[in-house]
Structures are given as structure tokens and as C-alpha cells.
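thought: user wants a sequence for this fold. calling inverse folding tool.
action: design(structure=
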């Protein structure tokens, strides 16, 4: 009889997919459909973990990453990220006011977003993600890391979802 703490009453830990993303990146916006398909296919068996990699060429990307962290703190990370990515061109024109506007549209505390962007409370998280990304070889966005394998979506999304699914399926089968 198996009396170990990891008995069948505990669901297996989800497979983790780190998504290195930049919220002013059109390629990241284009990758949303793949992320939504992965979420639909795997549900809570796959944990999509947002990792920030703001690129210098996009002047509002660093603020957007901080705003995404504030959204996470308010319990709406992915809905916020998707809403910002859906409006990449508008973010380029409007900048930080759009980030606060989107927060309000989603029913989040927009004043708190404004304060967070002013006081920089999430800068360390964004800086740490960016440093880790550089350390593992992330050079552009989107980049995915699953089971230690880095998949670069900045050049092409072609075949990436299928590769992620292959790895996730293998990892989930190993847990069974």
C-alpha cells in the first residue's frame, strides 16, 4: 500500500511553460491565439507563466510589463496582458495612459495602476525577468521555455505550438 504524501489524492503538478513576452510586440500579439489554444487544450495541467522581456526599441514596453505585474497583483494577469496585446498599435501612440485605461475597462483599480507606475513597485520583478531571460539566451519575443527547451517565436511561430504540445504531452504522460 502506498502511503506516500504524493498519493493519487494530489493532482500532478502542472507543466510549466514560461512565456517571455513584451507587451508592445506585434509578434507576441500574434502568438495569443496559440496561447489561448494551449490554455483550452490543457486547462490547469499547463501553467502559462508570464515572463517579462521588454525590448529597448519599444518605449512603453517597460511600463507595460510593470502594469502587467500590477494586474497580476489584482488577480487579472492574463486578461490584462491579452487586452494590452490586442491594442499594440494604440499603445505605441498613447503610451502609459492606455495602460491605465485598459485597467479601468477590465474593472481593475486604475488609480492603483497609476500609482504603481509612478512608484515603480514592480520594477524589480521586471528587471529580474529580463536578467534571467538574457542569462538563458532570450534575445527576442515571444520566446517559450518548457522543460528546459527554449523555443524562439520572434522569428516565426510556425510549428511552435505543436512542439510545445509534444513536450507537454510527454511530461504529462510521465506523471501519469
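)
observation: tool returned 176 residues.
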Amino acid at each position: 500500500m502506498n502511503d506516500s504524501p504524493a498519493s493519487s489524492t494530489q493532482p500532478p503538478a502542472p507543466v510549466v511553460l514560461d512565456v517571455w513576452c513584451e507587451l508592445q510586440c506585434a509578434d507576441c500579439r500574434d502568438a495569443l491565439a496559440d496561447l489561448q489554444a494551449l490554455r483550452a487544450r490543457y486547462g490547469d495541467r499547463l501553467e502559462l507563466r508570464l515572463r517579462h522581456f521588454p525590448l529597448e526599441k519599444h518605449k512603453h514596453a517597460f511600463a507595460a510589463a510593470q502594469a502587467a505585474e500590477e494586474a497580476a497583483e489584482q488577480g487579472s494577469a492574463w486578461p490584462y496582458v491579452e487586452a494590452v496585446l490586442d491594442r499594440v498599435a494604440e499603445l505605441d501612440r498613447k503610451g502609459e495612459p492606455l495602460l491605465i485605461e485598459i485597467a479601468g475597462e477590465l474593472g481593475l483599480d486604475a488609480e492603483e495602476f497609476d500609482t504603481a507606475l509612478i512608484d515603480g513597485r514592480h520594477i524589480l520583478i521586471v528587471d529580474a525577468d529580463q536578467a534571467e531571460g538574457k542569462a538563458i539566451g532570450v534575445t527576442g519575443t515571444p520566446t517559450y521555455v518548457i522543460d528546459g527547451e527554449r523555443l524562439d517565436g520572434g522569428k516565426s511561430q510556425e510549428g511552435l505550438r505543436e512542439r510545445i504540445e509534444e513536450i507537454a504531452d510527454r511530461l504529462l504522460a510521465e506523471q501519469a
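thought: summarizing for user.
answer: Here is the designed sequence. The first strand starts at residue 15 and ends at 21.
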